[in-house]
Design brief:
By secondary structure, this protein is mainly α. The chain is built from five helices and no strands.
């Protein structure tokens, strides 16, 4: 029979590793969500396929331009982790408003009324309000 020697791992070391993993996943999540939301933000300007998938832009100074600008700024702030809770709150409200004014009148089911993305983004942004940006963020650097 062979005895295996293992070095005892302290609870603090295990907790630190778990926190690093959690913050790393939160960073990746913020970057991916920010990038995907930025793609939505540039659509009114004819980028990322445009309004019709063929590069058409919204009319100049249309309301969708202002929405796109706000979404773009929010996406970048979220991705870098700056003012994350406030940004998450504003973007969550923006997506909830979009869902209830544009999609919900077409029916209760988000799959049928094409509001699934708006609903998901609203809840994702609300999650950032609750958990913040994590350790790997500009918010953390600002706090010191």
């Amino acid at each position: 029979m062979t005895a295996t020697l293992t070095r005892p791992v302290s609870a603090a070391a295990t907790s630190a590793r778990r926190d690093t993993l959690k913050d790393g996943v939160l960073l990746a999540f913020r970057l991916v969500v920010g990038f995907l939301f930025l793609l939505h933000a540039v659509v009114p300007f004819g980028l990322a396929g445009g309004m019709d998938g063929a590069g058409a832009a919204a009319p100049a100074w249309d309301f969708s331009w202002f929405v796109g600008i706000a979404q773009g700024i929010g996406a970048v702030l979220l991705a870098v982790g700056l003012f994350t809770r406030v940004t998450g709150f504003l973007l969550s409200g923006m997506m909830a408003f979009a869902y209830f004014t544009v999609h919900a009148p077409a029916g209760w089911n988000p799959i049928w009324n094409l509001g699934e993305q708006a609903a998901l983004y609203s809840w994702i942004f609300l999650l950032f309000v609750a958990v913040g940006a994590g350790r790997f963020s500009v918010d953390r650097l600002r706090r010191g």
